[in-house]
Amino acid sequence: MTTKTAWNAQIDITEEGRKVTADATLIGKSGQRQLVGHGVARCNPADQNDPAIGDELAAARALADLTNKLLDNAAHDIETHTHQPVKGSLSS
Question: One of this protein's Pfam families, by short name (predicted)?
Fold first, then answer.
């Protein structure tokens, strides 16, 4: 039997001068599980301000933070089911 599940992700980006913040929100099945990753990018005062680059960096950092939180949740769930600590990395 094949089961298909869809999760939705949304990235909200806020630009304030030379600082960009991003929130990457992951909503699991039926909206039950929601995780949020945060990312920030700041333009070096010596560099030309290009908001698109800040958007990309902040979004990437928010997604990386979200990834780490999702891996932590998976490790916790494994430990809950197996009653054993997770060994090694879940990222590969």
Answer: Rv2632c-like
Residue 14 CB partners (closer than 8 Å, separation 6+): 20, 21, 22
Specify the pLDDT at position 15. 95
In tens, the pLDDT along 36-75 reads 999 999 998 888 888 899 999 999 999 999 999 999 998 9
Between CA 69 and CA 87, with CA 67 as vertex, the angle to 5 degrees is 70
**86, two tokens:** 């997770």
Name 13's Cβ contacts closer than 8 Å, sequence gap at least 6: 20, 21, 22, 55, 58, 59
For 73-91, b where at least 16 C-beta lie within 10 A, e where not — what string?
A: eeeeeeeeeeeeeeeeeee
CB 59 within 8 A of CB 11: yes
* CB half-sphere exposure, 17, CA atoms < 13 A: 4
